[in-house]
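in:
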């Protein structure tokens, strides 16, 4: 708040100064054309007129210097960004530099000022004065503590030439400021300091922050889907930009905090400037431009943790998100003599999460702007409902890399989209995501249905005691019999047993990535239990397989398979029935082969149960 208030005050002072200078210039000219000088000879008259013109030049120099300080060293910026009330020249962008000739700009500005305030022929103190602007030229020198301006403007007073040049000096620290500025730009072009600082800020983005920007990391937890749309990420990226610029400090030793890093600058291009006051600002007017240039991959971001390996009921997924955007930084160097900041801009370019060279922007446009703005010639209207037909509000809808929008209270999102074939995605937390491929004309009025998800589903484990009959050989019995009296899985025959259950979706939606294989166990990290709360199960059809192992010996003692278990969206509790062989001799290292799975599963039919059964 303090910086914005100070900036606003400075801009107001600059505007007032320019108005005052203009009034002074008009007053000078009016006085010169109405007053009569003392009649003390032609030489004195010429001197009086020359002094008057020098006063006009001083007013012009002051005005143009104020403009040049605020516009990055130039009178007419060519590539600039809006900052406050001025267009500030960009000195560095896309890995290249373009610094104005400030001496030439001062000279050209003052000459234009004289051209605007003087006529080719006019009266000064009752004398006819002629100015030959065709032969006018300037010689400007930026010296250590001043700026020297010589104006060669052939001037005659009633045919007598006034001695040239007109010469004025302006006290200034512009020499040191420009030396710093040129070295800063060269250093930024080589080191990409602001790009590196921006990427570090993204890396340190806080996952607990509502505008968290995922960069690289590992997502854990079965069913813990990480989903982000462009609309969700864009505000966080803008926060990253503001944070980075506000935390770059010059010649200071900020407090070092791990969760609040600063980026100190003490030298540029190997040179130190201990007496310069340098600050950095982000022009808020650029926010709308960030909207155009921002893109990321994958879009939308969908990270689904998956089991790390067979028989390990732990889900994780590493991810890297590749961002592309650019933004300007206003570099402000204070001139205590002029009591003014000299300002110029550098463009920060991030491409695929690395320092870029603007190659991502075809003809100055990002892929998003080109596709989702310039080529958005078709219309999409998506109505999202739940399975009961009720509208689903606040669902995120995307088509290709473009935002269709967030559904309203009627479950509707609509916007212009590019005319092509691409993926339509609909996502809302607490629902199974929707993803399919359409032509743009197929979604002009498309209705999408979302299924609700259960955050936790209660899973019970029950065992049916099985007895192996006949000879045992190499993990197999000749036949099996079953007792249809279901018991707790563990302890089984007073022994701890562990079960591993795999849920494999039969028809997974590869566009959303959420229908992933999941694994659960009855070991909670401390104890063997008969009931667990499972996360990540979708309301789809699964192929379910399970194996039971004696914990002490590690011997497999039971298997079951169910090839088409359909989990409904309202189902929140089910039981897995497991045939477990109870007459194995562990001292003789007996166990059950996986090839016995179908035989053991078939035993459940005689008990009138399915391997997986929803609890009513």
């Amino acid at each position: 708040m303090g910086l914005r208030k100070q900036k606003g005050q400075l801009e107001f002072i600059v505007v007032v100064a320019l108005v005052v200078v203009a009034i002074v210039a008009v007053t000078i000219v009016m006085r010169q054309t109405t007053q009569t000088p003392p009649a003390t000879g032609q030489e004195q008259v010429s001197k009086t007129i020359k002094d008057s013109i020098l006063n006009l030049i001083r007013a012009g120099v002051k005005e143009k210097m104020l403009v040049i300080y605020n516009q990055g060293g130039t009178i007419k910026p060519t590539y600039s960004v809006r900052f406050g009330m001025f267009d500030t020249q960009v000195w560095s962008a896309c890995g290249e530099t373009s610094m104005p000739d400030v001496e030439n700009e001062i000279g050209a500005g003052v000459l234009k000022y004289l051209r605007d305030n003087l006529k080719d022929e006019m009266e000064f103190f009752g004398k006819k004065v002629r100015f030959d602007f065709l032969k006018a030229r300037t010689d400007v020198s930026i010296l250590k503590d001043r700026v020297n301006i010589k104006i060669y403007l052939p001037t005659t007073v009633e045919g007598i030439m006034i001695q040239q040049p007109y010469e004025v000096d302006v006290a200034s620290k512009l020499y040191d400021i420009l030396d710093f500025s040129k070295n800063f730009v060269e250093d930024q072009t080589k080191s990409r300091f602001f790009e590196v600082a921006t990427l570090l800020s993204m890396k340190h983005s806080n996952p607990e922050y509502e505008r968290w920007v995922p960069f690289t990391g590992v997502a854990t937890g079965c069913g813990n889907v990480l989903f982000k749309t462009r609309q969700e990420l864009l505000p966080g990226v803008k926060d990253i930009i503001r944070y980075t610029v506000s935390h770059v400090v010059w010649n200071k030793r900020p407090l070092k905090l791990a969760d609040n890093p600063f980026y100190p600058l003490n030298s540029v291009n190997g040179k130190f400037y201990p007496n310069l006051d340098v600050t950095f600002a982000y022009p808020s007017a650029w926010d709308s431009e960030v909207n155009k240039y921002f893109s990321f991959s994958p879009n939308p971001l969908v990270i689904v943790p998956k089991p790390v390996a067979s028989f390990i009921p732990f889900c994780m997924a590493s991810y890297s998100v590749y961002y592309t955007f650019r933004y300007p930084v206003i570099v402000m160097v204070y001139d205590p003599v002029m009591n003014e900041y000299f300002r110029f801009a550098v463009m920060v370019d991030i491409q695929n999460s690395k320092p870029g060279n603007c190659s991502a922007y075809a003809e100055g446009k990002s892929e998003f702007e080109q596709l989702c703005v310039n080529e958005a010639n078709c219309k999409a209207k998506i109505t999202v409902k739940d399975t009961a037909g009720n509208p689903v509000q606040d669902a995120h809808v995307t088509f290709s890399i473009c935002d269709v929008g967030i559904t309203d209270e009627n479950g509707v999102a609509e916007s212009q989209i590019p005319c092509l074939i691409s993926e339509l995605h609909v996502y809302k937390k607490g629902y199974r995501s929707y993803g399919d491929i359409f032509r743009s004309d197929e979604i002009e009025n498309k209705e999408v249905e979302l299924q609700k998800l259960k955050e936790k589903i209660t899973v019970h484990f029950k065992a049916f005691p099985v007895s192996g009959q006949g000879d045992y050989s190499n993990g197999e019995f000749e036949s099996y019999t079953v007792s249809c009296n279901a018991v707790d899985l563990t302890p089984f025959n007073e022994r701890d047993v562990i079960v591993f259950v795999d849920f494999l979706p039969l028809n997974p939606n590869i566009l959303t990535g959420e229908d992933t294989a999941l694994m659960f166990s009855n070991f909670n990290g401390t104890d063997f239990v008969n009931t667990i709360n499972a996360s990540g199960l979708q309301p789809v059809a699964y192929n379910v397989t399970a194996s039971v192992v004696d914990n002490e010996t590690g011997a497999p003692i039971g298997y079951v398979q169910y090839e088409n278990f359909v989990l409904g969206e309202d189902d929140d509790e089910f039981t897995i029935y497991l045939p477990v062989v109870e007459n194995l001799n562990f001292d003789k290292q007996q166990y059950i082969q996986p090839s016995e799975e179908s035989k053991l599963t078939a035993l459940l039919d005689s008990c009138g149960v399915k391997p997986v059964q929803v609890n009513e």
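note: The CA atoms of residues 297 and 322 lie 5 Å apart.
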